[in-house]
Structure formats: structure tokens, C-alpha cells
Amino acid sequence: LLVIHCISLPPADYTGDCIEQFFLNCLDHSRHPYFREIEGVTVSAHCLIRRDGELVQFVNFRDRAWHAGRSSFCDREECNDYSIGVELEGTDDDPYTDAQYLQLARLTRELQEAWPEITPDRITGHSDIAPGRKTDPGPAFDWVRYRSLIAGQSKGKR
């Protein structure tokens, strides 16, 4: 399972290294009032794709990351146990960048080559595996565009 998320720290701020610090459990919670709200929260994702398309990996794809929380996919609970989590730097409502879509499509194809069971119907948003609790990647994420990019890259590799 591939799960698409979004994050920005502080919310809607796309500068600095706060996301990295948060995922590495060394965020200085006194730097911003919002950080006090997430103090004590420990999460991780396998990767982050920044606004400029830079890919930052935090967890080996073969290892468990803590990105999904309480979740379920096809009646199977605890998605962290069997999924890869990719964070896009952004918010539910800010359009994602061209560079992010291209990088996400490239990464998706690489993951699908390594794990053929990650078929298009096993790619989902955080909101779909944790409905009512999570909303990301949100309405700004263009699923049609993303799936088109994956399909185009797939055809190009055959």
C-alpha cells in the first residue's frame, strides 16, 4: 500500500527544516506556538517531497514508519504495518507543485517496480484510510493528474 500525505510546519509555511526536525524527533517546540500543540507527538514517514521536488528519505522502505496512525484499508487494520508513506510538503488546500507531481510519479514507479503489489488500486490518500480523522492530501491534490503521470511513465518504461 502506498499512502499519500501532506504536511507543513508551521502550517502553510514552506521554509526551513521544521518537518525534518519533527520527523527526527528533535523539533524545538518553543520556535512556534503551533509546535506546542504537537509536542510529544512522534511520527515518521518514509519520504518527504518538498515544494521544489527534492526527495528526502527518513525511513528505509522495508522498515515500518509511523505515518498512518489508526487506519484501515480493505478491512485490514493498522496500515503502518504494510504501507509506505510519502509526505508532500503542503496543505490540503494549497495546490501542489509541478515538481512534486513529477517526483511523486517517479518515486511511485520505482516503488511499483520493487513491489509489484503496489498497483494503482493500492495507492491512496491518508484521508481514505483514516476517514473522519485525517483529510490529507486534501482537495488540492490532483489525483487524475498524478495517475496520468504514473500511467505515462509506465508506458514509457515498457
What's the SSE pattern? Answer: EHHEEEEEHEHH
The radius of gyration is: 15 Å
Low-confidence stretches: none
Protein structure class: alpha/beta
Physical arrangement of strands within the biggest beta sheet: 3-2-6-1-7
Beta strand %: 15-25%
Distance between the termini: 23 Å
Globally, the shape reads: globular
Count the strands?
7
Mean pLDDT: 95
User: What's the tally of helices?
Assistant: 5
How does the major sheet shape up?
5 strands, mixed
Helix content: 25-40%
What's a concise summary of this model?
This protein has 158 residues and is of the alpha/beta class. The chain has helices at 18-23, 33-37, 98-114, 126-129, 143-157; strands at residues 2-7, 47-49, 55-57, 72-73, 76-77, 84-89, 123-125. It is 30% helix and 16% strand.
What's the layout of helices and strands?
Elements: E1 2-7, H1 18-23, H2 33-37, E2 47-49, E3 55-57, E4 72-73, E5 76-77, E6 84-89, H3 98-114, E7 123-125, H4 126-129, H5 143-157
Parallel strand pairs: 1-6, 1-7, 2-6
Antiparallel strand pairs: 2-3, 4-5
Helix pairs in contact: 3-5
Model description:
There is one protein chain. The chain has 158 residues and is α/β, with parallel strands linked by helices. Helix content is 30%, strand content 16%. It contains five helices and seven strands; from the N terminus they run βααβββββαβαα. The strands form two sheets. It has a five-stranded mixed sheet with strand order 3-2-6-1-7. A two-stranded antiparallel ribbon has the order 4-5. Strand 4 (72-73) and strand 5 (76-77) form a beta hairpin. Helix 3 (98-114) crosses helix 5. It is globular.
